[in-house]
Amino acid sequence: MFELNDGVMRQLLFAVENKKVSLLVDVSTGEPSREEDVPHDVRPPDRETLDPSATFVYPPDWTSADGFALMSRFAVHESDPAAATALQRALDAGRGVFRAFKDALREHPEAERRWKAFKTRELQGVVLEWYNALRDVRGLPAVERGVDEDFDDLVEESFTFETVRGFPADSVLELDSAAVREALAGVPDQIVEEFLSRRAANLTPEDGSEHVVISATTPGERRVGFLWYHVSSAADTPRLATAEMVYVDPSFRGLGIATHLVEEFFRINPEAMTRRVIRSPGGVDWFRRCFPAVDAGVLSTSIVVRDGYRFEG
User: Fold this and answer.
1) 241, exposed or middle or buried, with CB in 10 Å at 0-12, 13-18, 19+?
2) Fewer CB within 10 Å: C terminus or N terminus of the chain?
């Protein structure tokens, strides 16, 4: 049975809020994995069954209704009248209520800070109750855990970011191919294969460019995201840093990993020294759909390129 330490708690908080991919939690490590990556013979039959011999279990159940109820409780008790009014107005918006709530919080930074602390406390309570239920069916005593409100930057605390100079390793290139296939979903296979072939021919260790890979890995050393870029320069022209791919495992999207990767790319290549381009096989629409948090900060100042055509963000 895994220990509910800070690193595992952060992973489980992510799993609770992840609504895009079905996840399972390894009982021995506490690390989430996509359900489709777990063998059928060790998958639990459903969310309700707690088998003491299970190898994998579903993370704590957390629905959109639970999220809405949490926001409602916070808005009712918000001490700033202006913020409380704005939040209640957002909750009454109907469609798009979650986005409206976040937008309202951005207009009231102190209320946003209180919301993050409130949400952290509540979700940690959900995780702890679930964890003790797992312990109970295994004959283990319940544990107590103090609430840690210092989760302001979950991404940096929960993932290891590393910058490696040199042509990408095979494991990165495999993820890169998966990213291209996702970005070009719906395009005939023959065209996708031709795109990959041309891409491989144009990007080689001997192309004269400086290649750099910024990676994000879990505490279990699983790579869940990367940004691959290369820097080239010609005589009398500025350096050109081209990000060929930004990719995050679908299980870990929405957590700010892509934002961190892109910000690091921009930090390493300041505008005063280098022209910066983000290239995306799926164009702006795919980039925005996968990484909405990066949208405003990057597409407004950069260019996303698809098949040689430039799309202004």
Assistant:
1) buried
2) N
